[in-house]
Q: What sequence folds into this?
């Protein structure tokens, strides 16, 4: 009778870490743009479980609340992790107001990562919009680290304005490589901007890739991801090789709070990374 | 269906009373149906006298009323507004406490109450609902310790249904009116002639309990009678739902005009999710104490009918009632299967009875089973 109740025996300590945050120490704070800050966190005790690019941690600001934030650092960096956070509300405000030495609670990692292993030999397209570059950064760092495993690599990034461009010096550094294309555009240029102006999808027609062997990794606002997927499809990239990182309200991270539903998917468990072949039909339905 | 003849036992009301006391003596917190505030609710019980003796209920869409029976039935009603989830997944529970030193904070997970519950009077549809929530909270990749600590070692005394209400449709959902497993003891109440219960054990604990209360071996006539009254109940279900191809139809009909029609009636009150024995969604509340040195996280029942449920920065994903009702119904009858491998509905009828405007999931699902008239495709 109590089969499920008695068999699934995870130790109490293991379970607690999935439900209860572990305090970490803030070891670095870097201001990226006017509203975005990258913080580095290190565990006080045991090293946290390893993560893969695309996974998220739940970050807890003492007494304020907890929100899902992608791990943006290189997975090879060890137990110290970086998170790039845009201030939009109470919790992200508290998390971006920290100083070195403060404590932040961490639970995770949760979710399905970018399918890096399946991408070997493929032409890679990384398409980011706004803060969406954060979960792509950990991926890009791996792509570049293992550059010989892939065909063409293009990084396409769109920001609202030149001042909102994330990881600007890194983008410039990646652009300097002879084996990687980096194309950046802004929605609205200001004085002193001599780059592309327009939405990020405009960069897709001229990106270098063989549609049949391309694989795309997309993250940004939902509309941007929808339009990006459409233009990739138009260029012949198969829907099962276009991956998006879906965004839904997320409270538990383990598929039990019900908040992150997107049709048949629980974004925290089946996602956040999902192929267009799987979520396209649902992302297209308004208010689903 | 019915009770397996080889193990069937029989006892009177005194035997039932002894069974309830035996559970208490074994250290269980015994919970069962009682009459309170004009409804049958679940709460602590000490003996058979605490049960809703002589009460039945009348249920219809948006309608519930207790009605006196002309016999002394202990379980002569269907289901009330409560379900057992209020014990396994309390409306509000503590997740952890945190304390802040200068620049340090320490976290402590909430102590688990180590009460063992005994549920008496569990309907077959409610056993099915507990099984459904087990599939949500006890998956081996995501075992929820708060649920597990309450769920483990519970004792379940089921009661076969002989008085389905006007809103019941468990027969359609394959969850009742007879329970065949998942209980420690299952009772069938017989009211013809001498008031008695045919009892069968579903576990070692059940066998022990029945032996302890001295339940006699049942005669074949009583066993047959028990089968008959439950079979008859299946014929008297107030409602039905055709689930054949329903999940596929709901997936295909996400833009069906019926959703908008329902939205004109639905108040978005969330009653349906609160009374539903399978609805499991929760929200998290993080608070600070006044001094700012102590923090608390609690988990509370939430409802997909609230606007905030799907909030992400910039606004709600489902601002319209059309989208919120669609989320609820498609979750119950379609997407739940993909998420957890079971249906999300057991056919208990509570959402129909307790909806203030009488929206009926069986009627709406039937309408949505039919293809939408052309037009109205998504973006
Ligand atoms: C998988 C995933 C990865 C994310 N990665 C990052 C990241 O790397 N960097 C970053 O800056 N932001 C990221 N976000 C978004 C971030 O979680 C929200 O900006 C944050 O929850 C806002 O909380 P708030 O209290 O500051 O703001 P408010 O807008 O006041 O939010 C109130 C509450 O609503 C919920 N909520 C609000 N917005 C979102 C949202 N966009 N997604 C999910 N829940 C939300 C949260 O529970 C939050 O506490 C990610 C979201 C998801 C789902
Ligand atoms: S959806 Fe309605 S009928 Fe189905 S289990 Fe929930 S309350 Fe009962
Ligand atoms: S269906 Fe009925 S009970 Fe549910 S939210 Fe709408 S009005 Fe309330």
A:
């Amino acid at each position: 009778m109590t089969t499920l109740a008695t068999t699934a025996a995870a130790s109490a300590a293991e379970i607690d870490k999935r439900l209860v945050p572990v305090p970490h120490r803030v070891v670095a704070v870097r201001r990226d743009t006017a509203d975005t800050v990258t913080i580095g966190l290190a565990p006080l005790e045991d090293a946290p479980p390893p993560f893969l690019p695309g996974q998220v941690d739940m970050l807890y600001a003492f007494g304020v609340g907890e929100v899902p934030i992608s791990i943006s650092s290189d997975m090879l960096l060890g137990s110290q992790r970086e998170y790039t956070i845009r201030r939009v509300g109470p919790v992200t405000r508290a998390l971006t107001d920290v100083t070195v030495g403060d404590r932040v609670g961490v639970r995770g990692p949760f979710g399905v990562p970018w399918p890096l292993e399946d991408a070997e030999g493929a032409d890679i397209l990384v398409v980011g919009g706004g803060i969406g570059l954060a979960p792509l950064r950990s991926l890009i760092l791996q792509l570049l680290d293992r550059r010989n495993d892939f065909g063409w690599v293009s990084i396409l990034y769109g920001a609202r304005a030149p001042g909102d461009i994330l990881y600007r010096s890194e983008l410039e550094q990646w652009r300097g490589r002879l084996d990687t294309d980096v194309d950046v555009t802004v929605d609205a240029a200001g004085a002193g901007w001599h780059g592309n102006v327009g939405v990020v999808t405009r960069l897709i027609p001229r990106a270098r890739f063989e549609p049949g062997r391309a694989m795309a990794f997309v993250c940004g606002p939902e509309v941007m991801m929808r339009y990006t997927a459409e233009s990739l499809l138009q260029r012949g990239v198969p829907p099962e090789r276009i991956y998006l990182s879906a965004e839904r309200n997320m409270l538990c991270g383990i598929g039990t709070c019900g908040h992150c539903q997107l049709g048949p998917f629980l974004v925290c468990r089946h996602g956040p990374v999902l192929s267009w072949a799987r979520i396209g039909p649902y992302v297209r339905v308004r208010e689903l | 269906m019915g009770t397996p003849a080889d193990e069937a036992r029989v006892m009177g009301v005194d035997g039932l009373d002894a069974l309830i006391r035996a559970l208490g003596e074994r250290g269980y917190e015994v919970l069962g149906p009682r009459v309170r505030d004009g409804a049958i609710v679940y709460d602590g019980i000490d003996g058979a006298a605490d049960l809703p003796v002589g009460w039945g209920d009348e249920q219809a869409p948006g309608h519930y009323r207790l009605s006196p029976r002309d016999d002394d039935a202990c379980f002569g009603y269907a289901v009330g507004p409560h379900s057992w989830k209020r014990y396994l997944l309390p409306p509000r529970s503590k997740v952890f406490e945190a304390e802040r030193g200068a620049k340090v904070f320490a976290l402590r997970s909430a102590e688990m109450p180590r009460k063992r519950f005994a549920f008496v009077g569990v309907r077959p549809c409610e056993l099915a609902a507990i099984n459904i929530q087990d599939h949500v909270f006890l998956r081996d990749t995501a075992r929820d310790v708060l649920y597990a600590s309450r769920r483990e070692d519970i004792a379940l005394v089921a009661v076969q249904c002989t008085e389905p209400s006007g809103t019941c449709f468990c027969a359609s959902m394959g969850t009742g009116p007879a329970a065949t497993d998942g209980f420690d003891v299952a009772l069938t109440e017989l009211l013809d002639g001498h008031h008695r219960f045919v009892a069968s054990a579903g576990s070692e604990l059940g066998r022990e309990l029945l032996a302890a209360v001295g339940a006699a071996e049942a005669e074949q006539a009583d066993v047959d009678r028990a089968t008959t009254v439950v079979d008859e109940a299946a014929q008297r279900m107030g409602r039905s739902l055709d689930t054949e191809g329903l999940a596929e139809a709901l997936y295909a009909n996400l833009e069906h005009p019926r959703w908008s029609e329902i939205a004109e009636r639905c108040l978005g009150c969330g009653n349906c999710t609160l009374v539903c024995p399978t609805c499991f969604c929760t929200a998290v509340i993080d608070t600070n104490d006044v001094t700012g040195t102590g923090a608390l996280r609690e988990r509370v029942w939430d409802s997909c009918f609230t606007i905030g449920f799907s909030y992400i920065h910039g606004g709600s994903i489902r601002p319209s009632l059309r989208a919120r009702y669609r989320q609820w119904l498609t979750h119950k009858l379609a997407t739940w299967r993909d998420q957890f491998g079971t249906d999300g509905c057991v056919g208990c009828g509570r959402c129909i009875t307790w909806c203030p405007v009488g929206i009926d999931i069986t009627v709406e699902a039937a309408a949505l089973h039919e293809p939408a008239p052309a037009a109205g495709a998504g973006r």
User: Anything to note?
Assistant: Chain A has three domains: 18-110, 117-237, 246-288.
